[in-house]
Amino acid sequence: MVHRDCIDTKSLFQLRDIRGPADPRRLLPNLLSRFRGWRERARSRHLLLQLDDRMLRDVGLSRSDVDCECAKHFWQP
Fold this sequence. Notes:
Blueprint: H1 9-13, H2 24-50, H3 53-59, H4 63-70
Helix pairs in contact: 2-4
């Protein structure tokens, strides 16, 4: 005998679409977006390395801030 009071029917009907980000139709756009983000992050870090100390002071960064940021891999935010 099943007690209806024990079943959480509210959460059963609020299940999200399980296709979500793994939807095959969104796979290529998601990958392209991720690659663009990685490329932009790598480019930004490379440009940071080219700034001199005066320019870094202007934007409120120190050389150690830049070194810490640029030590990260391109996929790390």
